Amino acid sequence: MPPKKKAAAKKSAADEPAPAPAPAKRGRGGKARAEPEKEAEEPAPAPAKRGRSKAAAAAAEPEPEPAAAPTKKAAKKEPKKKAAASKPAAAAAEAAVPPEPATTAPQFRAEGPALLDFNVSVSVVGGSHAKEIGDILAYEEDDDVYGVELSSGHERVKRADLLPRYDVTVLELDGKPVIKKGTVDGWHAESERYEVALRDLQTPRAKLHPQHVLLPTGARARVHGLVNAAHHNGRLGRVTDYDDNAGRYTLEYINNEEEMLAYLKLKRANVRLV
Questions:
Q1: Can you list the alpha helix ranges (DSSP code H) found in the chain?
Q2: Residue 255's domain is classified under what CATH number?
Q3: What's residue 19's pLDDT?
């Protein structure tokens, strides 16, 4: 038995027991065949005990792989999820903020000129932008200035330099009674007449005295030319009605002394647009 003799010789020389060689595999015919030598393998690490600490367990766990990029369908759904999740937060924020008071149409003030509605078309009758036409976009109460969109751009214009381009009815033209429609385009201070663009091919434009022009309901106007009640001259108000039989406007204004609305019955000649 040659293998046993060699193992005995190695035992006496090394003074330490050596592991027994694995039994040789036998091939066909019962002969033993030699196994190729294997490289020495490092000993496997001892299995961790069940009672190891959480830190050690976390260190032993493999790092998670980065998540794959979402597909197009998933990416489209994500904003919807976020929006749905944000609805409770938005509702809570709205509940925390007090609601703003409902806005109403601008009204004229007790002090200062009558306010003009937004988006009203106006003519500039003074200042560096005189004779330009634009639309009102904003109002600055502290400075009593309007933001007007003109052909030259957005400009700040004083209230005294603006004239609303109201649609009016012309009652007299060239000394003859007529009923024609037109639009106020300006005011001539020297002659105290409106510049009116008529819807008439024969007479496209005309300069007309206030008594020959009927202002629409809601027009902002100023009292002018009263003799017996001169203390009302200069009052600002709003046309609320017109009496055809009497030929007089009803002008609504604020009585500052009594702090209440008051009314005047005025002829067309005593009311001017502002």
A1: 2-14, 54-60, 72-96
A2: 2.30.30
A3: 53
Look at residues 190, 214, 238 and tell me which one is the last residue of a structural domain. Answer: 214
Residue 110 falls within a domain, yes or no? no
The domain tally of the chain equals 3
Q: What is the DSSP letter of 169?
A: E
What is the rounded CA–CA span in Å between residue 220 and residue 106? Answer: 12
Helix (H) or strand (E) holding 56: helix 54-60
Residue 219: beta bridge partners? none
pLDDT tens, 160-217? 899 999 999 999 998 999 999 999 999 998 999 999 999 887 889 999 999 999 999 9
Identify the domain boundary among 214, 229, 246.
214
Q: Work out whether the CA dihedral 197, 200, 201, 206 comes out positive or negative.
A: negative
Q: Classify 244 as helix, strand or coil.
A: coil
CA nearest to 239, candidates 211, 263, 208, 213 = 263
* The pLDDT value given to residue 254: 85
Query: Using CA atoms, how far apart are residues 168 and 236, in angstroms rounded to an integer?
Result: 19
Residue 127 Ramachandran class (φ > 0 left, ψ -120 to 50 alpha, else beta): left
Q: How far apart are CA 151 and CA 121, in angstroms?
A: 12
